[in-house]
Amino acid sequence: xxxxxPYTIQPISELPGHEDRAWHVAWNPTxxxxxxxxxxxxxxIYAYSSTSNEESKSIPTYAFKTLTSIPTGHAKTVxxxxxxxxxxxxxxxxxxxxxxxxxxxxxxxxxNGENDGSGEWECISTLEGHETECKSVAYSSTGTxxxxxxxxxxxxxxxxxxxxxxxxxxxxxxxxxxxKCVAWHPSEEILASASYDDTIKLYIEDPSDDWFCFSTLSxxxxxxxxxxxxxxxxxxxxxxxxxxxxxxxxxxxxxxxxSYLASASDDTTIRIWKRIAEHKWECVLVLGGHERSVYxxxxxxxxxxxxxxxxxxxxxxASASGDGKVLVWELWDPPSSSAISTxxxxxxxxxxSSAHGVHDVNSVVWNPRSGFEDLLATTGDDGCTRVWxxxxxx
Amino acid sequence: MTAWPAGEPPSPPALSSCFLxxxxxxxxxxxxxxxxxxxxxxxSHTEVxxxxxxxxxxxxxxxxxxxxxxxxxxxxxxxxxxALNASAASSSSRKQGVVAEVTSREVLRRVQAFCxxxxxxxxxxxxxxxxxxxxxxxxxxxxxxxxxSASAKEGGEGESSLPMLASACxxxxxxxxxxxxxxxxxxxxxxxPQQVMGTLVKSWMGSKWGRTPDGVYHVSxxxxxDKKLEASRKDxxxxxxxxxxxxxxxxxxxxxxxxxxxxxxxxxPVPGELDGTRCSPSDKxxxxxxxxxxxxxxxGTSSGSYLHSIIEHLKASSETRLTLSVKMIRNxxxxxxxxxxxxxxxxxxGAKCYGFRNLQNIVRKVGRERGVRTGAGAAGRLGGRxxxxxxxxxxxxxxxxxxxxxxxxxxMACPGGCVNGGGQLxxxxxxxxxxxxxxxxxxxxxxxxxxxxxxEQNVETRPTKTLEELAERVVEELCGSDVSVRxxxxxxxYRAVESEVVGLAVxx
Lengths: 394, 508
Fold this sequence. Notes:
Chain A is mainly beta. Chain A has one helix at residues 235-239, and strands at 7-15, 22-27, 33-38, 42-51, 61-71, 78-83, 89-94, 99-104, 121-127, 134-139, 145-150, 155-160, 166-172, 179-184, 191-195, 200-205, 211-217, 224-229, 260-265, 270-277, 280-287, 294-300, 313-321, 326-332, 345-352, 361-366, 375-380, 385-392. Chain A has a single domain (7-392), classed as YVTN repeat-like/Quinoprotein amine dehydrogenase (Methylamine Dehydrogenase, Chain H), CATH 2.130.10.10. Chain A is globular. Chain B is 42% helix and 11% strand.
């Protein structure tokens, strides 16, 4: 435990159950649900609740329980999961080269209530087209587009239609090797992909034609495993920030458009790429701290500290690595007077060793829901999903 | 040709060359299977030169000496002509001169002169008459399938036969055989123009020359690398004479390279090139000369007008007036064509669908509509979990106009079709903008090749009576009235190919 850091990473829950390594995990953006996937070809859905005593401002307690285990029918490992922004649909990416689209059947006796995910999960569609292992899948911010990538070196963009119909919008063959990750910009229709060819590619649509790669980000000296865009802060959220954080209404103006991209690499570093023009990103910062391959990176709003710093708060960035560590950084935009390519100010605020014992940590994902931004989930080669909370060191 | 960079763990070689050709035009860097890469490297312009040199060294009377024939695709002629015009335009703009545009016909004459005088080919044809035979057979097959489909609907036996999908694009065939075997029953069994040309040259002309198929060496010039794979299919190998219908395929680019290497200037006119189509045989063209109609235009698409020839037939043979309407679906590469009767009912619905992404959507649409499972293995199991809910949501599937299933789809793997094939010449000269745009440059260039393809004025575009009589006579001489011979001469078949997945333990 690093006592010098201002925050600690506290264990909240351990969710075992997968019979093989747990690859990836995704928090539902609208409901208290969490999905994990594994080499055992299943997806596990967990529900959670929190009890916090508002009057006493006591530390909330969380309860996590397994709702169901979906035997997906995928013939091989389920490598990644992604929720649609509505929270109603889950996508699975499998080494069997297919993408599965899943929805939960509504249970009759909760006709008027919310679909709490406890019903039967059905595969409403299967997206075929990739030739080999699918590595990652992601919904765009509006939920109208889905991106997938594969060891076949391609990135596909699918248009989401009603009733589980999908249309192939683009097949992008820009990478020279296995594509590991796809990530949509949180507010614009910009897609990023990361590859075994050590590069990151950015794509936009030419309205009169196909999608195309408008930029290639080079700098990593080995495989790029994971990508995370900096989160969007909107002003309404400022006033209702975390109920159990130290926040409150702020007078600071927050960034309204995400202008950073973080990438995690086998070269043990995390790079921060800054938008310096509309279609131009440049590496402004290289974060070290891991001793082995960095497999996963996640960026969320976090909990803004009470003290004020000059510049714009950019949230928390978490990384997970083959060295078993999880690291969390707090980032701030440099003062607006500084040059465009000035890196964001950064501070390591929390660190956790042996997050999954001796095992690799395969993914780290922040909870995106308001009020739960200090929750983090990790998955490891031990088959476990673990939930953590970032709390101020006392 | 290295399929992947040395030292890298190979991805499974499942992406076929066609897959790459479609959008990338970087054929040789793609991961095609090693067997396919051998088939392609065996067919090169140097291979042609090697053969011609060895053949010419044999004495006239030697039985081993073969008749060298070369056939060139109309899209290749258009590509060469467009490149000539583009470079002439960029140099004449400096000289303020006006240069007349070179047509496909003039290019054909110059290529004929080059192939005959410089290389020593005895015959140089274009492939449009073969295409004419293909279109006739293709339409006949469509009518057969429609009839079978109608009888199946009335309770009769019969496999799913519609929609019929075009078969001329080898990229599409190769992809379907590897990735979508469930589409194979729908793919037209009619041979492509290249392969019918092969049959014409080796069997029909060969017999007129008193030669067996192995006594003729046949080269074709194509806009597409995957035509090399097509020519190598075992269906087009004559076991009796141990020879292929097309011995070697070279691309437009390889022909251009060949001319450059031999110092042939394609911009220089050759005598008689403006005289129009060949009508009087020259000295060389003796009585046995099988004269073929040249540069036949088939109105519709520059990829062969497969869809339009069916539409034209349906219109011409209908007792009532049919109205054609065209609807763009996503862009010019995906359009729907509907024939409507005077009573407003839909008689025919077809589509033109080019490019890999549109092709994906067609595969899914046809699979869904015709109830064939797409993909294999895991997909089926996943599908097994699909509940009744989605089907209920879809409703009973009323056959309204919008919902009418396709009868025919002209599928081509390359965006823009064959004029934009992977073997065509690259964009030449200034295509408009101040700064050459890597992205829009190609599209603009494809448009110019397309214009050149249709460019020539005063060309008879309707099949004439004499043309139809000749076509009938040729088919009669080739096939007689024997259905099985006709199947062999004009049709072919397809097989699902197991993808050669590398059995490496994949951790990631």
